[in-house]
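Worked example 4.2. Below are the chains of a multi-component assembly; read each line carefully before continuing.
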Amino acid sequence: MTHRIDMCPRFESAFEILGKRWTGLIIRVMLSGPQRFKDIAKNIPHLSDRVLTGRLKELEADGIVIRHVYPETPVRIEYELTEKGRDLKHVMDAVQAWASDWIEMDEPEEPKGK
Amino acid sequence: MTHRIDMCPRFESAFEILGKRWTGLIIRVMLSGPQRFKDIAKNIPHLSDRVLTGRLKELEADGIVIRHVYPETPVRIEYELTEKGRDLKHVMDAVQAWASDWIEMDEPEEPKGK
DNA sequence: TATTATACTTACATAAAGTTAGTTACATTA
DNA sequence: TAATGTAACTAACTTTATGTAAGTATAATA
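Applying the procedure described above to all four chains together yields the following structure tokens:
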């Protein structure tokens, strides 16, 4: 009816994943290799256990992450990126490049005067 | 204390912007040139006015978008990406490439059997 | 049996997003 | 002059997502 830009549904799908809080940081941390739950949590300061659990499940459902269970004592569970997940490195690199060019960091991490 | 990966604060900042629902799609639509409020809304189906207003303000505050007011009748307001915003094209291209490689679209946009 | 550690769950509070309706400003029309 | 129409919001309310704190499951060990 009206002429609208043809928004690629794959692009929309991609942003349903990336456009959620924490997802980008989780993937970035996992790009350095398989990680245990607590290691991911440790590397992403304000991320809660509850949300990390949810995100890992979503990413697993999306085929971006695999969950490995090692029946040791205590049980060891590792999360690893699939090829699909590792290929997001190109996206993360682009974000990093943009951030390096454009984000200033004069103020400390949590500015008070807000 | 513990050894954690040094999460680049610029990267975190970038994902505070990109890691919000709709932001990626809004920027993608704006990459095709200055747009009026209603045009952006028209090109992003399920995005509400309320959220679009908020996102445009955030993006303006982040220096990614400029708001131009043309005192015509009725008043015409156009939103345009700044250089900082246009430079996000590289990120969007990487997302598009990843999505083209990895996102399947067998099922219709809103699968029923979920 | 009690203790310890990891990887979750659950319950509840707050913040963000969705939905619908209304407002403002101005020119055109009746 | 009053009614109408349009774009760009804004307000009120509901629903969903996230934050926070505490609790659970499992298995080896003391």
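Take a moment to check your reading of the output against the notes. Residues 36-38, 49-50, 52-53, 73-77 of chain A lie near DNA strand C (CB under 10 Å from a C1'). The domain at 20-96 of chain A is CATH 1.10.10.10 (Arc Repressor Mutant, subunit A).
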